[in-house]
Design a protein that fits this description.
alpha/beta, Beta-Lactamase, Rossmann fold, 4 domains, five-stranded antiparallel sheet, 21 helices, about 40% helix, binds adenosine-5'-triphosphate
Length: about 550
């Protein structure tokens, strides 16, 4: 081999061409006779247009062999055994003795048709199975623009954008869909071409998989929402202490109605926790907005209207100069809680009914109505049926405010909640006053469960707080509760009366009413006949006290 053969090719490339077994050109790495010998052996074993490896005196090389009629050509380049040229493919070829078989298999894989386009978008290669699938002859697509050789090809777009397209459906003709990946190929930062790869033969299988995934995703979303809802419900109803069946049911009902856009009427005796229920409904429903409360029994009837509707500037003598928004307006988007709704005067009932029907509020002194959206929750301790029967409460208004009616059970029907309530009220009182939480003497809960509770939880809370005041910081004793029993004419629970277990109220309702009545009379006596003070001490409204005394 003469030296002139190697001119123009440096040591990073070698070319060996033979015709009828004779070397006709040997350039670069192939210039050396020993190198030629090694290359001839290796290229002989390599099929046409396939990669092969060889070991030359200068080191290992990989190359491609081309066989045509009586001519064979090998083009080789050295393998950088230190991997400094970043040539992953060559490293792979050197490291894996059957590397070519793997590449062969990939290129022939019927599930992974491969197409290669150069940076002009001209097809350089289509794997044989894919050629067949496209109806092309062997090498029939090479040299053609990608979009001419392959229906709906986007290889050119990928070359232009430099952005890979992964998992995209591609139509290869009527009813023939495939899912494909298209990736730009870069060399030294420049896009030199693009590779297309058919991922799945069966696009239907993919859409089935996608549908299943979507279903799983929406199920996951559903359970996530459920979990969030449960967490929210637990937090919002956590203030409703008590695990009796009645309380569990109430909590469940609260969670159910809170998410519906219906007006809720809460019924229950004084002090049973109606306002707490209203707050829980608000938190779970429109909790991100305001809850505006109005106690209709506490308000002189002359003020109810302006409180509810608000007024314009100078609407009446004494009205605010700039005018004022009423509770309806303040509660817009949130919750309006009308407490003691049974006490609304008849003329206001008519106006309230109009607002609830039309959801339009006019301030007093104005004729311009404003559309309002609020959630209405009302409560009353009164016997609403009786009020309707006696004509004191409008039938149609009742239907407007009571989309759903919740009943809060009196304490006597859930005496088993007393231990939990006792612990709750003790802790709340101590926390509020910065006091250490004392232990509670055994027997206190039983004693409390044995008392009549006409004022329900409010009365229980007052009794507990009163006892805490007269007890040591370490121990809340039974004596702290019974210290006034003698004065009240009651037997001392621990001494004379066998204590009953903490169980639901006995069924003898009339006897309980008698208890309540007796308690009411006793407290009234203690208060020197002052009904206002007696009602406060009992934790009941004055109207309920009158009822008990009637
Ligand atoms: N389930 C409960 N867990 C803890 N505290 C409660 C519970 N129910 C009521 N309370 C407490 O009892 C007191 C009275 O409750 P609330 O004011 O909600 O009763 P109400 O039924 O609205 O009374 P009224 O009819 O007199 O307005 C409050 O201090 C409240 O925090």
């Amino acid at each position: 081999m003469s030296e002139q053969h190697s001119s123009g090719v440096d040591g990073s490339l070698g070319v060996l061409a033979r015709r009828r077994g004779e070397v006709v050109a040997a350039l670069g790495l192939a210039a050396d006779a020993a190198a030629q010998e090694a290359l001839v052996t290796a290229m002989h074993l390599a099929p046409d247009r396939s990669l092969f490896e060889a070991h030359l005196p200068t080191g290992p090389v990989v190359g491609v062999a081309l066989h045509a009629d009586d001519t064979e050509i090998a083009i080789v380049r050295p393998v950088d055994t230190h991997g400094t040229d970043g040539s992953t493919l060559l490293d792979f070829v050197v490291a894996v003795p059957f590397a070519f078989d793997i590449l062969e298999q990939i290129l022939n894989d019927p599930y992974q048709g491969i197409t290669v386009a150069d940076h002009h978008g001209t097809i350089r290669y289509i794997s044989p199975v894919h050629e067949k699938f496209l109806g092309l002859s062997y090498g029939g697509g090479i040299g053609k623009p990608a979009e001419e050789a392959i229906p709906n090809s986007r290889l050119r777009a990928v070359i232009e954008s430099g952005k890979a397209e992964i998992g995209k459906p591609q139509s290869f003709g009527e009813g023939v869909m495939r899912v494909v990946n298209r990736r730009p190929i870069r060399k030294n930062g420049q896009i030199v071409g693009a590779v297309g790869q058919v991922m799945f033969r069966d696009a239907e299988a993919v859409s089935k998989m996608a549908a299943e995934m979507n279903q799983l995703r929406s199920q996951l979303e559903f359970y996530r929402r459920e979990l969030d809802g449960l967490r929210e419900t637990r937090e919002a109803t956590a203030e409703l202490v008590g695990d009796s069946q009645a309380m569990q049911r109430l909590r469940h009902e609260v969670a159910t109605v809170a998410r519906l856009d219906v007006p809720v009427l809460i019924l229950g005796e004084s002090g049973t926790g109606k306002e707490l229920v209203a707050r829980a409904i608000h938190k779970l429903g429109r909790g991100s907005h305001e809850m505006v409360s109005l106690n209709l029994a506490a308000l002189p009837s002359s003020l109810i209207e302006s409180e509810l509707f608000g007024h314009t500037a100078g609407a009446f003598t004494g009205s605010a100069k700039q005018g004022r928004a009423g509770k309806f307006e303040m509660a817009n988007d949130g919750t309006l809680f009308l407490d003691e709704v049974g006490d609304i005067p008849m003329d206001v009932q008519i106006k309230l009914l109009r607002v609830l029907e039309e959801r339009v509020v006019e301030r007093l002194g104005s004729h311009a109505g404003k559309k309002m959206s609020f959630r209405l929750v009302s409560a009353t301790h009164r016997d609403i049926d009786e009020l309707i029967d006696s004509g004191a409460f409008r039938h149609d208004l009742f239907y407007r405010i009571s989309g759903v009616t919740l009943r809060v059970p009196p304490l006597r029907q859930r005496l088993e909640d007393i231990p939990a309530l006792l612990a709750h009220f003790v802790k709340a009182f101590c926390d509020r006053n910065g006091l250490p939480v004392p232990k509670v003497e055994p027997g206190v809960a039983r004693y409390l469960a044995d008392q009549p509770w006409p004022g329900n939880l409010r009365q229980l809370r007052h009794r507990i707080e009163e006892a805490l005041v007269f007890s040591s910081h370490e121990l809340l004793t039974l004596d702290a509760f019974t210290r006034n029993d003698a004065a009240r004419g009651e037997p001392h629970a621990t001494v004379r009366r066998p204590v009953s277990p903490v169980l639901p109220a006995p069924p003898a309702a009339p006897r309980l009413k008698d208890h309540e009545r007796a308690a009411a009379r006793r407290v009234l006596d203690e208060c020197g006949g002052n009904k206002k003070r007696a009602a406060e001490q009992l934790g009941i409204s004055r109207s309920y006290l009158y009822k008990l005394l009637a």
